[in-house]
Amino acid sequence: MTVTLFTVFFFLLVIGAPIVFAIGAGTALSLMIGGIPMTILPQKVFSGLAHFPYLAVPLFVLAGMLMETGGISKRIVDLSNAMVGHIRGGMGMVVMVATIFFSDISGSSAADTAAIGSVMIPPMKKRGYNPSFAAALVTSAGGMGVLIPPCLTMVVFGSLTNTSVGALFLAGFVPGIGMGLLLMLLTYIIARKKNFPMEKRATFKELLIAAKRSFLSLFMGVIILGGIILGIFTATEAAAVAVIYGFFLSVIFYREIKLSQIPQILWKSAVISGVVMLVVGISYAFGWVIAKEQIPMKLANFMINLPGGKLVFLLAVNILLLVMGMFFDASLSVVILVPILFPVAVKLGIHPVHFGTVVVMNLGIGFTTPPFGLSLFIASSIAKVPISSVIKPIVPYILTMIAFLLVVTYVPWFAMVLPKIFMGY
Amino acid sequence: MNLLDGISRRLNQSIKFLAGFLIAAMTILVFLQVIFRYLLDAPLDWSEEMASFAFVWMALLGASVGLKNDDHPRLDIFYQVFPDWAKKLCGLIINLAILFMLVVLFIFGLKLTITMQMQRTAALGYSISYVYAVLPLSAIIMFIHVLVKTVLLISYSKAEEIESP
């Protein structure tokens, strides 16, 4: 069954089938051959989609579309430009900072990438950045964004393992910001080498004007972030509030969107989200087949018997999760793998919060890696470039992320420092 | 063929607007949920359920428009270097695989929809089949789109003239 699944999947993938249908056809055929009731396919797609947190995806896509069309993104970009535009590759830095900001809003890497991508890629193209490089930047930023709280994957991990979700949120912060700074440094080095555009340095007065002009736009983020941190609303609700706020700002206050443009903005957002969500839905059916064949279980057995204890186990976990992250939605990998890996980790004396951070970090990187990184697909479809063209510019980013992952894996300080200070871990 | 092509286009046009309407409905429902809870102090118990169902419909219908517009991401590194005849052959294999998956989704989605008929939703109490129905519906819409693409693929002689499969 698994052999059929992977053979069909990889064959269709290689000859250029849309990935979602390569998975879907492989899953359908393997169910048929395995003699399993094929109702599993529609049922898993349905139950996978019917999770309330996923509603945040289309809502943030829509908010992003409104920001992009309604002059909101323009104002934020203008401000960021006044702040860091004079550095080489300044727009690249803006992507990173904006993603940290947006991740504080969304909790889902797909939503981060969709929101930041649709806001930042068009202006970057306009400023002369190579669209493939822009897509690579947004993709890697999305991979980093998973670490910044709130994060759905952390919530799932926490509830599965009885680990404090608050501690996990705090734990993600330092590695998240650290990775953001590293990626900005890398962007700066690349920008120096390739001579990316920079703007002339803004005067203090110009900076103030840009800040004033973008105040209401930035306030959109404040509402969302504050609302989630203070526990006023969930990420999904925050997304809906962002859409309504963005609508009033761009249609009524800025008057940059005509009412006649609204239907198009709506259906375009629905299509972008539909494309993403079909992948998520189908991967639930795919994951079901994999889990049925006990593949995760077999892998866990293999790992616990490896010599070298904790160090080798963590390395093996990293490799396994990176590979899983390449193919699956993060929540799905967590649901399948964590119940098996977590007891092994605890037995080896790894702190649950540290382990959770490593897991989430891995899955974040998985989002950015070919052949099946979700962020990669979203970013390249927004940038309107083929995925293959994004692979080359993204390699240095992925390598940097993996290097930092190993640091966080073997130096627990990064993950544990904030939970230690604030929660006494 | 012209008839089928016309159906596919017109269907896609209507589905676009339906999906757009659903995403707007979702937003308003979730927003109302916040308003009622905080400003009116009267939490809604049905808004989350209804928004989730609008979401499932929107997602699958949106995905069908994505299929029509060739928006679904694919790995094209190898495909790009294939000779014309191989591109055409691969296109056919891919379309057949998609059609196979859609047939499964349609038949078993329909079966599921019928089986679930008696099950009521938790908050609103209507039949959950109304939600499941989007599975066979979106499958048949996508089937029509892929069928049209396949006929176009066969009838053109050069791969360049074809939209990607």
What does the model show?
The complex is a heterodimer of chains A (425) and B (165). Chain A is globular, with a radius of gyration of 21 Å. By secondary structure, chain A is mainly alpha-helical. In chain A, helix 9 (152-161) runs antiparallel to helix 17 (352-368) and helix 10 (165-194) crosses helix 20 (413-423). Chain A contains 20 helices and no strands. The longest helix of chain A has 31 residues, at 262-292. Chain B has 165 residues and is mainly α. In chain B, helix 4 runs antiparallel to helix 6 (134-155). The relative contact order of chain B is 0.14. Mean pLDDT of chain B is 87; it is low at 159-165. At the A-B interface, helix 1, helix 2, helix 3, helix 4 and helix 12 of A face helix 1, helix 2, helix 3 and helix 4 of B.
The end-to-end span of chain A amounts to 45 Å
Main beta sheet of chain B, described?
Answer: none
Broad shape of chain B: elongated
Give the low-confidence spans of chain A.
none
Number of helices of chain B: 6
For the record, give the distance between the C-alpha atoms at the N and C termini of chain B, rounded to a whole number. 18 Å
Beta-strand residue percentage of chain A: under 5%
Overall mean pLDDT of chain A: 82
Helix content of chain B: over 70%
Succession of helices and strands of chain B: HHHHHH
**Largest chain-chain contact?**
A-B, 67 and 63 residues
**Gyration radius of chain A, rounded:** 21 Å
User: What portion of residues of chain B belong to β-strands?
Assistant: under 5%
Order of helices and strands of chain A: HHHHHHHHHHHHHHHHHHHH
Instruction: Report helical residue fraction of chain A.
Output: over 70%
How many runs of DSSP E, i.e. beta strands of chain B? Answer: 0
Number of helices of chain A: 20
Biggest beta sheet summary of chain A? none
Structure class of chain B = mainly alpha
Low-confidence stretches of chain B: 159-165
